[in-house]
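Re: weekly structure request thread

Next one in the queue (107 aa):
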Amino acid sequence: MGLHFMFKGYKTKKIKIKGKYYRLWIANNDRKRRLGLSGIKKLPPRTGMLFCYNSDVHNSFTMKNTRIPLTIIFLDNNMDIVDIHKVPAFYKLPIISKKPYRFVIEI
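Done, posted below.
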């Protein structure tokens, strides 16, 4: 399944991370956040997903169905980094931020 088909209807946002621009699909509802990048076999360079929440949360993430390794960046309401995790594919333990967050970037 192609990425354009998988993420049809998703808005995207360009965000600069460590001097490089990334195109991120926006996961702004429960269905999109649950799916995340779990169906991806290969992530194109400088692409990823931005998870958006309406208020601060402290949920855990899981990679048990994700086929690719990811860097997960937890951000507060000001888009300041609160925690970062580099996670291998199919990692089964919960990934938890040290602090509550409002946004998460997976690249």
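The longest helix spans residues 30-35. The CA atoms of residues 55 and 102 lie 6 Å apart.
Next request, please.
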